[in-house]
Write the structure tokens for this entry.
Amino acid sequence: MNTIAIKQLRDNSTITKYAQHAPRYTSYPTALKFESLKEDLSPHALTVSKAKAVSLYVHIPFCKTLCYYCGCNKLVTRHNEKADDYLDYLEKEIVSKRYLADDKPVVSLHLGGGSPSFLNKVQHTFLMYLLKKHFTFEVGAELSIELDPRNVDKTYLQNLRGLGYTRISFGLQDTDYNVQKTINRVQSTSHIADLVSEARTLGFESVNLDLIYGLPNQSEETFASTIAATKAMMPDRISLFSYAHLPERFAAQRKFAPGTLPSSEEKAALYNLAVNGFKKVGYEMIGLDHFALRSDSLAIAKHKGKLHRNFQGYTLRGDTDLIGVGVSA
């Protein structure tokens, strides 16, 4: 988004025109247009694919607690043993899909959820064993994972690094206690800062922080504090997601009292506050809602015209087949 586009967000007529619910732009046709098929089209897709490599996505649906804003495919439970059963089924799915790799090397792996940090160290080790047993990973493959910082300590990060993960993402969302309490996600900002520092010490190639704007009880004043805390940690990348309020679809969102959500104009102001704040300290805007330091590979690829996008997000590789495993993948 360029400067002109950002300025247009301040135009009330533009805001009013586009202030409506719509599917996320991650695919075209959008996910809401997907239909169930009686026939598996994967074999046909494999015959026409010209990709020379594979990207893997693994969905871990479990969360220990429910964040009221969340619209992800998730299963809230504190019974860790359920993940053992899940991994057993996951192996069956991996076996049924490994032919799709067709002896191509895996160049990237991403774990999303839910929260992959629900898995304990033994379960993470077993999952990596399964993946490397059934797929061939390229030397230097990019391995990334999304983490709920409330379930992570320094030894947890050490285990992930030992398993070969190179990129991690923490869900920061918002640092204001009142906002955190409203969305049922109270967490320590200093703890997250310690984890970011530890990740750098351990040699992770990249650290990302997720932020959400448009949450209940957010204001420019409170969100300015979140932006300041993010800049102080200086992650390599930042994701700035727009909160999608769909209470008719996600029951937990009905807990938000009427009038607590920012208006369209207020939400646009939160967005502009973040964009301007991050650009001032050296971040490049990547697409609509991502930022990267100018030295980051995404920013460099953007300037070279070599940036690509798939269901996992922005990527440097546009020549891979994407294989998803796990519920909803």
